[in-house]
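User: quick one, fold this
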Amino acid sequence: MRKTQKLTLTAMLIAIGTLTSHVFFIPLGVVKVFPMQHFINVLSAVLLGPYYAVAQALSVSLLRNIMGTGSVFAFPGSIVGAFLAAYLYKKSGKVLLAYAGEVVGTGIIGAILCYPISILFLGKEATLFGFIPAFIISSFAGATIGYVILKVFMKNPAAARKIAEANLNQRS
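Assistant:
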C-alpha cells in the first residue's frame, strides 16, 4: 500500500473512530462498553502497521478529548493497545495476535498506566484493579468485532492478498 493510501485510510479510521466512539455501545448490566476504538485499533494494526496505528489511536484520543467526548484515560489504553496489536501482527502475520495485542495492550497495560494518571491529573486515589476489568471488557468486545470482520474479509481471495501484501510491506 502506498503512503498516500495509508494516510487516507488512517484519516478515514480517525474520522470513524471520533464520530462513532459514543454512538455504538453494548450495555452489560450497569456498564456500557464502547468498543469502536478497539475495533479500529485492530483494523489499523493489520492494515496499516505500527506507526499509522499509533497515529490513529493518538489522533482519535486527542480529538475526542478536544470535543469533550473522551477522557484522559483514552490515551494510554488506545495507544498501547494499537501499538502492541500492530507490532505483534507485523512480527507474526497472524490476526489472532493482533487481537491479543489489543486486549493485553489496552485491557491490562493501558489500564495499569491509567492508575498514575488518575492520581496525577485527577488527584484521586483510584483502585488499580478498577480500571482493568472495564478496559478488558471494552477491548475484548471491540477487538472481537475487528477480528471477526478481518477474518470475513480474508475469506475473499482479493482482500486476503491485499492484507498479505500490506503485511509484507510492513515487515520490510
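User: anything notable?
Assistant: Helices lie at 3-20, 36-48, 50-67, 74-92, 95-122, 128-154, 157-171.
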